[in-house]
Design a protein that fits this description.
The complex is a heterodimer of chains A (507) and B (445). Chain A is mainly α and 507 residues long. Chain A has helices at residues 21-41, 52-66, 82-94, 104-129, 134-145, 148-155, 159-174, 181-197, 205-215, 218-245, 258-268, 281-292, 294-306, 314-328, 342-358, 365-392, 400-411, 425-430, 448-453, 468-472, 480-485, and strands at 418-420, 438-440, 463-466, 487-493, 500-505. Chain A folds into 2 domains: 21-392, no CATH class; 400-505, no CATH class.
Chain lengths: 507, 445
């Protein structure tokens, strides 16, 4: 069964929509994207609270601007650096122009807002290139960006969000109606940028290749696809070259290495367990996602099946299948895992909505009726999602970490070193601590340079600010209980698991 | 950043620019799917269409080994109103014998023009045929060329279909792939020229016309005064003058309709050929017509001319500076990464080259492309570029010194099957003269 009559390699068909509808469609979709961006922007500074991962990238972007280094600590090839390079470029250009948030992490979320808007616009343009109607493109972008889970994850200063922009951009170029060679080259550069933003984007490179392969006709395919591969691999190879030229490709004594980091990521890293087994970390993550919005997760799984009904959405169904299958294995699962799937689920449901309308004769009552039905259904879904966001993401939430930072700013001794979670690092440096005296908690026993500076380890610290993130990572800092036992509680904010406590360390 | 770093970056930018320029021009056929169709010949004119009269000029010098067959093949084109004009030097009886052999078999078609000019050159030969030619369309074919069957009809079809066309440039293949070390690279270069670079330049409005397999509307040639007798690259020269006069050039390339040629048989032959071309280009730039070209066309021509020089200079300087910087102090990682960018562009160029080789092999029945071919293609890049750069510098030096003598490319017919080389025709004796570089030096001192 084919729901959508999809011309693939043939010449682009004549526009189906009557004249005038393009103008209306463009206007309506501009408002839709603007509305989505507004939802993302609403209270983005104060909700959710900054995570340590966001803090890591914020600090690494800060290090690029102020230290001319890829990270405030030894860069150890945990991720390719393009993502925070862009964050840094954005901060560098806009810091005098834009309002600053309560924390450095919050301020960098401004960039994520831009990334979201750019991704949404590119997604609409991609949908149009794939012959979606304006209605279908609208459904696609709403499904891509309105679910509370999406709003939550896309607000975060996370590399995956940047990679997704490049991924959608690569698809946009690969879907060129004119099948120009430069589109293939640009697509290759975009997928290269995606992989240089976050290495896991490579999982979705076959999707771009699939679209490209189908789009280009037989005569030009060989050269176009070869060129795509050469350019994409060259772009990705820059990362390896960087490591080689720093003599940090192969593991060796006394230095970090790319292969070592890859080995850690793929083999040594503690897996999150099976997502469907209760009690595993992956399962807890699933519940965390479900708490934000179960609908979008159901849609992702459904899309992995529905997408195969129409040739247009085969590449996107493939992406969803890759995503769902990879989540089922017992590997490391980051909290941002679903981010890469959001554009694909949007595209599949956009196409489904389109085919529900297009199955009827043009200008027939049934067609108008089903179009109205799609609009109503989308509006209803949007309402549900907005309610979810209104409950969880619009209100300012109590931020114990922010209060702790304020307390430190007012009472802390700048001469004493502080052990902190990553999200506070830049803020304390801004408050006057020297960068040597603010230490990411897990660096104290992993980074040789830090160990050299503080030979007695945690005993050399003046303060420790214990955050929920630190308590959750106690496995990597086994000294924490002893450290707290040898410290005096100065002040504590928040209650229970969310509490943030400042201790004075008496080693 | 130190001073030498900036020089290094400049090298990287220039190399990358030159390489990107090469890729952009050499990939025109693939820029958009319709391009390949756009540069193909139209379907032949329907039977019964009155075709324009055509004359084909074949200048020949010390080419008795190959000329007869070339002339005969032209006569066998089956084109209704065709004249084949062999142009022979007055001091070259052996080649004259070869031409007379063909004239004996096709007395209606073949005519022979004796060129008395001295010293000899191809443009003088072509110019000497000017007064005797009377045809709507005039083509130029070299003495060693294997012209594809039916080419003349297809060319005529182009002129008929579009009255605005003044020049039709057909494709040329170099087919002695087992020749010298640069043979494969040279052949691939030709495929990319005729299938991409020249069509692209034609679309942009400026094209140095090729030396053979080019067909002119005769009135257009007369309007610009024919070939310049003193030009070293008479093809590019007339191309510029036609472009200045607003002529329309159509480049048409089909694998099956390309003229088969051999590449120079020795390294020195190739260098001499390029020196002549480059010096010819330099001459053109110094001419009056050049100034009447639009800025855009001038820029385009300069890019064409400057590309080998840029590639040469940067290919020389890049490793040099890299070494210097590396020896004097630790090299910054950014600079190392930058140095790889032109290499990546070269890889993209290699994709185009391998594809061109595959198509050439397919068209000329050379079998599959082997790893060895690709190996030679890669290995020859740097020496080839160095040679092109040296040729350009030599050309500039020759031009500055006022040395305008003609260095001709040797042809011995290695692109033809050996059995075809000797044609015994009813008592007409053929003297075989080993065409060597020395002999040619004597021919065109």
């Amino acid at each position: 069964m084919t729901l959508l009559e999809a011309p693939v390699a043939e010449a682009p068909p004549a526009r189906r929509s009557p004249p005038g509808s393009a103008w209306i469609g463009r206007t309506v979709l501009t408002f839709v994207v603007a509305g989505l961006t507004f939802v993302h922007a609403f209270n983005i500074f104060n909700n959710p609270s900054p995570t340590d991962e966001e803090g890591t990238y914020t600090a690494q972007a800060w290090a690029l601007i102020h230290l001319d280094k890829l990270a405030p600590y030894t860069y150890w090839y945990d991720h390719p650096p393009l993502g925070w390079m862009l964050v840094a470029a954005w901060r560098f250009i806009t810091s005098p122009l834009l309002p600053t948030g309560p924390t450095a992490v919050a301020t960098d979320r401004e960039f994520m807002l831009l990334v979201f808007a750019a991704t949404a616009v590119t997604l609409v343009l991609l949908a149009r290139r794939l012959d979606f109607s304006w209605l279908g493109a609208g459904v696609a972008v709403v499904v891509f960006g309105l679910s509370p889970l999406e709003v939550y994850l896309q607000r975060l200063v996370e590399l995956d969000n940047i990679a997704v922009f490049f991924l959608v951009l690569a698809l946009f170029f690969a879907a060129d109606r004119e099948r120009r060679l430069w589109s293939a080259v640009l697509s290759a550069l975009a997928i290269g940028a995606a992989v240089l933003s976050v290495e896991t984007a490579i999982l979705y490179a076959p999707v771009v290749l699939f679209l490209l392969w189908r789009r280009w006709s037989r005569e030009t395919r060989a050269v176009t696809v070869s060129m795509f591969l050469v350019v994409a691999v060259s772009a990705g190879f820059l990362y390896i070259l960087y490591a080689i030229s720093k003599n940090e490709f192969i593991p060796g004594p006394g230095h970090v290495s790319l292969l070592g980091a890859a080995y850690w990521q793929l083999v040594q890293r503690v897996p999150s367990g099976h997502i469907y087994v209760a009690g595993t970390v992956a399962n807890q993550l699933l519940h965390q996602w479900l708490a934000f919005d179960p609908i979008i997760l159901v849609m992702i799984v459904a899309g992995a099946v529905l997408g195969w009904l129409s040739r247009t959405t085969w590449p996107f169904a493939l992406a969803l299948v890759i995503g769902v299958l990879m989540s089922l294995r017992n590997g490391y699962l980051p909290v941002t895992y679903p981010v890469e799937l959001f554009p694909f689920v949007g595209l599949v449901f956009g196409a489904v909505a389109d085919s529900l309308v297009r199955v009827w004769r043009p200008r027939s009552v049934l067609r108008i009726g089903s179009a109205a039905l799609v609009v109503v259904a989308t509006a209803a879904l949007s309402a549900v999602w907005l309610r979810g966001s209104a409950a969880k993401l619009f209100p300012s939430i109590d931020q114990p970490a922010l209060s702790a930072e304020h307390w430190m700013a007012n009472h802390g001794n700048r001469q004493l070193p502080v052990l902190v979670g990553d999200s506070m690092w830049v803020d304390l440096v801004h408050e006057g601590w020297k960068i040597n005296r603010v230490v990411w908690f897990y660096k104290i026993n992993t980074d040789p340079q830090v160990e050299k500076r503080f030979p007695a380890g945690w005993r050399d610290m003046g303060y420790v600010i214990v955050t929920p993130g630190m308590r959750a990572s106690v496995g990597s800092i086994p000294f924490l209980p002893t450290m707290i036992a040898h410290s005096k509680l100065l002040v504590s904010f928040g209650a229970g698991g969310a509490a943030v406590a400042i201790y004075r360390v008496h080693g | 950043m130190h001073g030498v770093d900036y020089i290094f970056l400049l090298c990287v930018v220039l190399t990358t620019g030159a390489a990107v320029q090469g890729v952009v021009f050499n990939s025109f056929r693939w820029h958009a799917p319709r391009n390949a169709a756009d540069i193909s010949f139209r379907e032949p004119a329907p039977v019964g269409t009155r075709l324009p009269s055509m004359a084909i000029l074949v200048p020949a010098r010390h080419e008795e080994q190959v000329l007869t067959e070339t002339l005969l093949k032209l006569c066998q084109q089956g084109y209704p109103e065709l004249k084949v004009v062999a142009i022979i030097g007055h001091d070259d009886p052996e080649t004259l014998v070869a031409a007379e052999a063909a004239a004996y078999l096709y007395p209606e078609t073949v005519s022979i023009v004796i060129d008395h000019s001295w010293p000899k050159s191809k443009p003088k030969a072509l110019a000497s045929a000017l007064p005797v030619v009377e045809a709507d369309i005039v083509g130029v074919i070299d003495a060693e060329d294997d012209v594809a069957a039916g080419l003349c009809r297809r060319v005529a079809g182009e002129f008929l279909a579009d009255p605005a066309i003044d020049v039709v440039q057909g494709g040329v293949h170099l087919v002695n792939l087992n020749g010298p070390w640069f043979a494969i690279r040279n052949a691939v270069e030709y495929v990319l020229w005729y299938s991409s670079r020249l069509p692209y330049q034609a679309r942009l409005g400026f094209i140095p016309i090729g030396g053979n397999t080019c067909f002119f509307r005769w009135s257009a040639v007369l309007a610009v005064g024919g070939w310049d007798r003193e030009a070293l690259a008479e093809d590019a020269d007339i191309g510029v003058r036609l472009a200045a006069a607003g002529a329309k050039v159509a480049v048409r390339y089909d694998e099956g309709l390309a003229t088969r040629e051999e590449c120079p048989t020795s390294t020195s032959g190739l260098v001499k050929q390029r020196v002549r071309w480059y010096q010819g280009f330099i001459q053109i730039i110094r001419k009056r017509e050049w100034r009447s070209l639009s800025r855009r066309h001038q820029l385009l021509a300069m890019v064409t001319l400057a590309a080998p020089l840029l590639q040469f200079l940067s290919a020389l300087m890049l490793p040099g500076v890299l070494l210097f910087v590396g020896l004097t102090r630790s090299l910054s990682v950014d600079l190392v990464l930058a140095a790889f960018v032109p290499l990546f562009v070269e890889l993209v160029a290699l994709v185009l080259e391998v594809d061109a080789l595959i198509r050439l092999r397919r068209a000329e029945g050379g079998g599959k492309v082997r790893v060895r071919d690709v190996f030679w293609l890669v290995v020859s890049i740097i020496p080839y570029q160095l040679m092109m750069g040296l040729a350009l510098i030599t050309a500039a030096v020759r031009e500055i010194r006022g040395n305008h003598s003609w260095a001709k490319t040797d042809h011995v017919g290695s692109h033809r099957k050996h059995s075809e080389q000797v044609i015994d025709l009813r008592g007409l004796e053929r003297k075989k003269v080993a065409a060597s570089a020395e002999a040619n030096e004597k021919a065109y001192p």
